[in-house]
Specification:
This protein is of the alpha/beta class. It contains 12 helices and 16 strands.
């Protein structure tokens, strides 16, 4: 049975309500917050004072408005308040991103390394320590850490059930790293970053291509993770049952046909930078490799679009960099395979966040959590 709300619960609710209103409308006065939240001016003033004392909110100049009467002092989220630290464990790199309460990026770093070894956990702990040192040097507190990984994550425990490209099975990541973290799928974090700081579309599938391929599905401005939170594994969608074996144990998965490693192999290039240079030069093998990847990507994405009727595809990660060469063949494949394309063509969007979306989403998710529960 759920009992009546006590004073502490009411204070928690009011704090979250006011802080959310400040986040949605920075530079608002206490009177404006009272009007926006329905709380009394006295309650709002008390909550704002507590949020200022906690370092979550800062006062600014008097509000700008016409008419008589005293002008109230505006309040906004404090850029000096607790920051969100996002860390991404990729197959061949580590990345971190430090963002403040307003969502502004304060620091970001990438370190390239092969993480398909047991040394990845020690390396990640050292990377986390260097990120915290940078936060200390900036004089800002870290309010929490979000970690993005390319695999199936049990979000309530942080256990990575399966990350085939890293060779992980049932890895308790918080225990391995010795801390309390919010662990999530990198594609889901990337989709959230796109929703909060990217194109602003309300409904889309965000597909990111690195060594693996992941997808995050956003419907009605909310991330859809599936019943058990394990959805979005588009990279392991079988597009060619007779195709080459995949790290997951199946054959012909999308990431084996259109992932970064396959594109580089077909293009006879050693890196994405070299591939792009070859594409800009119009080299036939490079152009053909990307067009082949676009064909397989179109097959996989058309299945998603036909199933859930999502109106837009956002290209992230390496695909965002390759978008100028992927666009035409990918749209042609989607047009051919999506049943509704004759009257409702799929919108193809290049993510403005590119390869940094997942780590920024991991950091921003910490900030969202702070705003939703400031009393915590």
């Amino acid at each position: 049975m759920i009992g009546p709300a006590g004073q502490h619960t009411v204070r928690q609710h009011n704090s979250a309500l006011v802080l959310r209103a400040i986040a949605d409308g920075p530079g608002v006065s206490r009177a404006g917050l009272a009007a926006a939240t329905g709380l009394t001016k006295a309650t709002v003033s008390s909550v704002v004072d507590a949020l200022i004392a906690a370092g979550l909110v800062a006062e600014g100049a008097p509000e700008q408005r016409d008419g008589p009467g005293r002008r109230g002092t505006v309040v906004s989220l404090s850029p000096a308040g607790p920051h969100g630290l996002g860390v991404e464990i990729g197959v061949d790199y580590l990345a971190y991103c430090l963002v403040d309460l307003t969502g502004a990026v304060r620091a970001e770093r990438v370190r390239f390394a092969d993480n398909r070894t047991p040394r990845v956990f020690r390396r990640t702990k050292e990377f986390l320590a260097s990120a915290r040192k940078e936060a200390d040097a900036l004089g800002v507190p870290v309010g929490g850490v979000g970690i993005a990984v390319p695999g199936l994550v049990e979000s309530t425990t942080g256990v990575v059930r399966l990350a085939p490209n890293l060779g992980w099975h049932d890895v308790d990541l918080p225990a391995k790293l010795g801390g309390t973290f919010s662990v999530g799928n990198e594609a889901n974090f990337a989709a959230l970053a796109e929703l909060w700081h990217g194109s602003g579309l309300p409904d889309f599938v965000h597909v990111s291509g690195e060594i693996g391929i992941g997808a995050g599905l956003v419907l009605g401005r909310s991330l859809f993770e599936g019943v058990r939170g394990l959805g979005g594994e588009i990279g392991h969608l079988p597009v060619d049952p007779q195709g080459p074996p995949c790290s997951c144990g199946a054959n012909g998965c999308l990431e084996r046909m259109a992932g970064q490693e396959e594109i580089l192999r077909l293009s006879e290039t050693a890196s994405v930078d070299e591939l792009i240079a070859q594409l800009e030069a119009g080299t036939g093998t490079a152009v053909a490799a990307v067009r082949e990847a676009a064909r397989w990507l179109g097959i996989g994405l058309s299945t998603v679009v036909n199933l859930v009727d999502v109106p837009a595809v956002v290209l992230g990660g390496t695909y965002a960099r390759l978008e100028p060469w992927l666009r035409e063949p990918l749209l042609a494949e989607l047009d051919r395979r999506v049943a509704s394309s004759a009257w409702s063509p799929v919108d193809l969007v290049r993510s403005p966040l590119g390869t940094g979306a997942a780590v920024r989403g991991a950091a921003a998710s910490v900030i969202r959590g702070i705003i939703a529960a400031p009393s915590a």
